[in-house]
Design goal:
This is AAA_12 domain-containing protein. The protein is of the alpha/beta class and about 150 residues long. The protein has six helices and six strands. Helix 5 links the parallel strand 5 and strand 6.
């Protein structure tokens, strides 16, 4: 496989168009040394900043501190049932605010965290992935030269 991969030309991704530019800033700084360009203006990614009252209205990102017991699987992956319930409630509230489920994506840090509510989330057409899946998908595109992007919304 290494021989085959060594013969396939690759090109570094230089522009990303999917996420709000503020969401791209941290991974761009950490992974791409600031070389990634956002092809999308913040004004084109205002769904969340206009729908919700966010702590920072310019950044469509919220961290929610959720209590609960962490469970560790045999593989070392982690999950928290209370976090899964919190995600479901956040999705319910977003949908109640007329946010299309196709515009909602949930990214977990651990694959096992998907298990508690995968069926529930998928039945609502919400995108669900783990951060490791996003990172693994990047490896063939030289992770140090590509951008961390969300799935199609």
């Amino acid at each position: 496989m290494d021989v085959l991969l060594s013969r396939i030309p690759s090109a570094a991704l230089t522009t990303t168009f999917r996420a709000h530019p503020s969401l791209n800033a941290l991974p761009n700084h950490l992974l791409d040394n600031g070389t990634m360009t956002s092809g999308t203006r913040a004004s084109e990614r205002r769904l969340m900043t206009q729908t919700l009252q966010l702590p920072n209205p310019d950044l469509p990102l919220v961290f929610v501190n959720v209590a609960g017991r962490l469970q560790i699987s045999m593989s070392g992956s982690r999950r928290n049932e209370h976090e899964a319930e919190c995600c479901q409630e956040i999705v319910r509230q977003l949908v109640a605010l007329n946010v299309s489920p196709r515009s909602i994506a949930i990214v977990t840090f651990y694959k096992a965290q998907e298990q508690p509510c995968t069926r529930w989330i998928l039945s609502r057409a919400v995108k669900w992935t783990s951060s490791s899946s996003l990172l693994l998908a990047r490896t063939s595109l030289r992770p140090q030269k590509t951008s961390w992007m969300t799935r199609d919304a």
